[in-house]
Write a structure and sequence with these properties.
Blueprint (H helix, E strand, L loop, with lengths): L20 E10 L2 E10 L6 E4 L3 E5 L6 E2 L16 E6 L2 E8 L5
Antiparallel strand pairs: 1-2, 2-3, 3-4, 4-5, 6-7
Length: 105
């Protein structure tokens, strides 16, 4: 599948904890079909927030391996609709959030 290699420039932050996310294998439940996919996961203990370049942010539930789309930001590029990720915050300016996206090759 093209574009599945991790980008060395992608530095996604968890939208809950504002810490860097780590690339790992995740099990995604898509229409009852369990699949493995590369996704970034929050590094905080017990945090279920994940991100991948195709879906954006999502929560991987601990029960029944289902994916929940509730309560996650869905920031999309205004030009092409690609999912964006939180790349930077400013602790001194609580309203500042830098959202960027990775262009699929």
């Amino acid at each position: 599948m093209p574009g599945t290699q991790p980008s060395k420039e992608l530095r996604a932050l968890c939208h809950e904890h504002h810490v860097g996310m780590r690339l790992n294998q995740s099990f995604l439940n898509s229409e009852g079909d369990l699949k493995q996919a590369l996704a970034y996961a929050c590094t905080e203990h017990d945090c279920l927030v994940h991100y991948n370049i195709y879906r954006g942010y999502f929560i991987l539930s601990q029960s029944e391996n289902t994916n929940e789309l509730d309560m996650v930001p869905s920031v999309r590029c205004p030009h092409d609709g690609a999912p964006m990720y939180l790349a930077e915050i400013d602790p001194d300016k609580s309203a500042f959030r830098l959202w960027i996206y990775r262009i699929l090759e």
